[in-house]
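Archive transcription. Copying these from loose printouts into the bound notebook so they stop getting lost. Printout 1 of 2:
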Amino acid sequence: MLFSIGCSEENKVADESDEKIAYISSNPESEYENTFNDLSLGTLFDFNFELLRADESWVKIWVEGYNQGEAVKPSPLAELSYGLYPEQEVEGQLGAGILHSDDSDSQILIYSKGARTGPSSIDKDIFIDSTMTSWGYAIGEETIGLKPGEEKLLAVYRQGEDELKTTYDYQDSDDLEKMINEDTMVLLLKIKVEEKEEL
């Protein structure tokens, strides 16, 4: 009886481990992020990323925008989609940056190991002239696993005309919806990894 229970628990742990297709953690104060800050280019979110079955996986990273509670078009504002590496496992950095300009549209760039998008222009009118700006990682520096098809919020950039509330739980869908409706402008960086054998 004890032996049977032990095996059952071991199988359960193994099954939970096998469900993870990738692992990710925030990488604040990385060389990429520090360079972005030193050059006053804007805001960068950088992550450590490990893809376990890279030859059978497809990764999608994108940025959604909301203004006055409504989705901004085009949706997503920027997107990077890639996968099916020749290697079985791939490890490196991924992230997204918001490049601000005083006299033209802002831009979003998304990068990952072996893949990136050119900067995508977004209407500068999306942003408001406000000192009430906040940004932060939605996940911590501890490594978390991603299941196939699971959508994960990685980072948030927010602006408001008044004081910004700081107690939202970014991984709670109700809190996230409340934040989108209460803030003037919100950008969300998200990721999803899916199993895929061919294009």
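Printout 2 of 2:
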Amino acid sequence: MTDDRKTIAFVAYPGLTPLDLVGPLQVLSALALMNPAYQTVVVGATKDTVGTDTPLRIAPSHTFDEVPSPFAVLVPGGTVPTLRAMADEPLLAWLRTAAGGAELVTSVCTGSLVLGAAGLLEGRRATTHWMFRDLLAALGATPVARRWVEDGPVITAAGVSAGIDLALHLAERLGGRQVATNIQFAIEYDPEPPQGALDWANQPYGDLKPLREHTLREGLAENPELLAKLLAHA
């Protein structure tokens, strides 16, 4: 790309969780509308549509080759397909190259596992979805239980909805507090979930443990060494 604007690249790969990508994309696309110094793109191996973990399909706007040096990168997460993406060498190679010159390397949910697989979390504090947080240690990171964690140029967010928080943090960092506040009003982000705030002292880990086990074994069935590495820290 020859555009002088700072490019924020959102990574699309088969099977991702849409809200991980679309939530932050909505926020930072609004930033780009308010501040023409920035632009948002969605990058993938090709421009062909990819499936998600819902019926929605997503089509990247650019290929990896068209955006070799973005200003910022965001990797969304998911379940089984995201574990498979940890062994997607074209994706990992692009991430390594892009991260070399990017000012910000970010992820949502289990997208941080993909960053870790690319070797980008070594020696850094990071977070991810709470069910998979302990696995970050196997990738050289220090797991932290926070909504988002910033360590140098790398910022990782916790599960799914935390991506919106991360994006608003980035909007403030890049555009100022008033711009971020205006965006928050524009998307009317003022959560009041019917069940109230989550009680983290009573998270249903036991109930969801079979799901985690299935996700790991199914996603890494063709990569037994990586599976063993992660399970050793489980």
